[in-house]
């Protein structure tokens, strides 16, 4: 495997990669804490959670397999050249593990907190079943020829596909409700930071190696960053421009103000009636 040509770039690669890991990992917590504080998951789309869990599980299988398996790494070098670098870093594996655990915990919150009439749609259920069915069929295809690099690439393709569609149900829900209440914007801002730094990490490796192989050698990581940035910008526009948060204090005080106004009106009417009688 190729080695780094520049120590500063190697250090930058590691630093930027772990910044991406921290940003993406912390991005799960605002939603978890929001659910806990509200004791409710109303406003959080369940299709998003299901598709997201499938996405992160697939990404974990790909990252861990390519990072830890010498056999799969050898197949990678046979395909792209022995002078290339493995396009999966330790921070990619660490993030995948953390993402699966936190997404599973958020799904657990769905079962213990108030969720209103929300439920997983049949479409999301069918997509999830279809994806894992395809993965199972591909396993039997890869087994005879030991085509494990091809097989884990299927999971990389799955995570790209799931990333492209997982945000859509939440975006549609925000549009239908004309609100982003219950959907943590903190999650989105951190997610955007992770997407940008993840792409920057690949750019640093390309500059050092003077090649773009790592971009298409791990096309899933490239598309993951681009898709993340696109959808995060969409959610930012929804939250801050299209459906800005209402003044919570004013909305909470409104019923009391209306009640006070009603009482004052009744008192005034009574006073006028008494004056008329006199």
Give your account of this protein's structure.
With 278 residues, the chain is mostly helical. It folds into 2 domains: 7-245, no CATH class; 248-278. The chain is 80% helix and 0% strand. It has 11 helices and no strands. Helix 2 (29-38) packs parallel to helix 5 (90-112), helix 3 runs antiparallel to helix 5 and helix 8 (185-209) packs antiparallel against helix 10 (219-242). The longest helix is centred in the middle third of the chain and has 30 residues, at 148-177. The N and C termini lie far apart (102 Å). Residues 247-264 and 273-278 have low confidence and may be disordered.
Shape: globular
What's the total helix number?
11
Q: How many domains is the backbone divided into?
A: 2
Please trace the helix and strand order, writing H or E for each element. Answer: HHHHHHHHHHH
Q: What portion of residues belong to β-strands? A: under 5%
What integer value in Å does the Rg equal?
A: 25 Å
